[in-house]
């Protein structure tokens, strides 16, 4: 490619291909901008467009211009985007040297089984999350401030996948074997299969959200994704690694998960806000029976998963604690959305989890790099 052709591609990416026919005379006014009347064909003026009213924006089925960010109708969505950018990090900033020693010389066989299978589940789950946001949810939301935060969310899910891969590489694990566990281990596959089934229809680009029945299914699927998949399964899913961290084991991997947890806190909080706003905007309620089935399926899958990864309990943690904590977190999420608690009288059996999930700011200067920078330590649920 010669220099002039390269410059044309860089500077005139929307220009038509060169033609041997001399171009017709045109106006010098900028094309495609409201208020300018060019003459693209003969003397016919280019029509201008009416200005946008922010009140015409909607979560879905909006009538405003998807390319026009402001004025905001959902300023909270822009705030989520700004908060997310204050939690910027990469896995390479956290040392895994001690983890390599812990994994090979300190962990018991049961603890290695737990650690490996948590990684195996999370690697697949974050790729699934990335695809669901990018291919299903983001494309169907019609306010750009919502889409911009979700674009950041897509990046973060990819970053999380890189983090798990970094842990796998650092420890010298068999990548093919780890990545295939979601296919060959029924208890891991069960959670992924449930997520795929619950999200399958809304992945279709032709899923008509002007149909009220489809709109309810979209709301229910997004509830599953934001509230259960991210808000319960992910939040609860890191807990076995945090249990090791409390005993001074696998501290690098656990710190990686603490950064991921802060992203997931925002993902879930954003999703809960979207669900609440969508139901209010559309004058809709989620069907109680459909919600009951959703919770029961999710709990059964989580219980089976806990039974597999913790078939032999580890010090301070076992399958029953894991399943019980899922029920407690599920009630918390239900209250945040404003729906009935699915598991009345569920108790907080792991009172240390919320504190352990937060990044510890006390760092020995001589032992670790400071990775706090501007990470907005006050990220919290709405």
Brief summary of the model shown:
The protein is mostly helical and 382 residues long. The chain has a domain at 98-357: Ribonucleotide Reductase, subunit A (Orthogonal Bundle).
Could you walk me through the main structural features you see in this protein, from its secondary elements to its overall organization?
This protein is an all-alpha fold and 382 residues long. The protein has a domain at 98-357: Ribonucleotide Reductase, subunit A. It has helices spanning 3-11, 75-85, 97-106, 109-140, 144-171, 175-179, 181-184, 186-199, 212-237, 239-245, 251-282, 288-309, 319-337, 353-357. Residues 1-39 and 361-382 have low confidence and may be disordered.
CATH superfamily of the domain at 98-357: Ribonucleotide Reductase, subunit A
Task: Tell me the span between the first and last alpha carbons.
Answer: 53 Å
Average pLDDT confidence is: 83
In DSSP terms (H or I, runs of 4 or more residues), the helix count works out at 14
Give the total of beta strands: 0
Major pleated sheet: none
CATH first level of the domain at 98-357: which class?
Mainly Alpha
Write down the secondary-structure element order: HHHHHHHHHHHHHH
CATH architecture of the domain at 98-357: Orthogonal Bundle
User: Which structural class do the helices and strands define?
Assistant: mainly alpha
Query: Which blocks of ≥5 consecutive residues have pLDDT under 50?
Result: 1-39, 361-382
The amount of beta strand, in percent, is: under 5%
């Amino acid at each position: 490619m010669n220099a002039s052709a390269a410059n044309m591609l860089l500077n005139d990416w929307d220009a038509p291909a060169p033609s041997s026919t001399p171009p017709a005379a045109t106006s010098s006014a900028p094309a495609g901008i409201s208020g300018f009347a060019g003459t693209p064909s003969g003397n016919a003026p280019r029509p201008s467009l009416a200005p946008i009213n922010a009140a015409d924006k909607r979560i879905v089925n909006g009538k405003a211009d998807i390319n026009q960010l402001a004025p905001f109708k959902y300023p909270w969505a822009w705030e989520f985007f700004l908060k997310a950018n204050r939690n910027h990090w990469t896995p390479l900033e956290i040392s895994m040297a001690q983890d390599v020693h812990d994994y090979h010389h300190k962990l018991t066989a049961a603890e290695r089984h737990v650690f490996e299978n948590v990684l195996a589940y999370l690697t697949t789950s974050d790729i699934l999350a990335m695809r669901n946001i990018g291919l299903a949810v983001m494309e169907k939301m019609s306010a750009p401030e919502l889409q911009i935060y979700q674009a950041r969310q897509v990046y973060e899910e990819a970053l999380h996948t890189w983090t798990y891969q970094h842990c796998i590489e650092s420890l010298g694990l068999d990548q093919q074997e780890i990545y295939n566990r979601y296919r060959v281990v029924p208890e891991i596959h069960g959670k992924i299969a449930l997520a795929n089934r619950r999200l399958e229809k809304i992945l279709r680009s032709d899923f008509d959200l002007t149909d009220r029945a489809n709109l309810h299914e979209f709301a229910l699927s997004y509830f599953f994704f934001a509230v259960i998949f991210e808000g319960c399964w992910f939040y609860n899913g890191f807990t076995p690694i945090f249990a090791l961290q409390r005993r001074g084991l696998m501290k690098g991997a656990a710190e990686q998960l603490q950064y991921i947890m802060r992203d997931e806190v925002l993902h879930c909080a954003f999703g809960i806000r979207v669900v609440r706003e969508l139901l209010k905007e559309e004058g809709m309620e989620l069907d109680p029976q459909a919600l009951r089935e959703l919770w029961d399926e999710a709990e059964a899958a989580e219980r089976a998963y806990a039974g597999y990864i913790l078939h032999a309990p580890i010090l301070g943690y076992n399958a029953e604690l894991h399943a019980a904590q899922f029920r407690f977190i599920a009630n918390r999420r239900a209250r945040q959305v404003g729906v009935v608690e699915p598991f009345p009288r569920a108790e907080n059996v792991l009172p240390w989890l919320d504190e352990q999930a937060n990044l510890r700011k006390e760092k020995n200067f001589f032992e670790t790099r400071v990775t706090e920078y501007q990470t907005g330590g006050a990220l919290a649920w709405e």
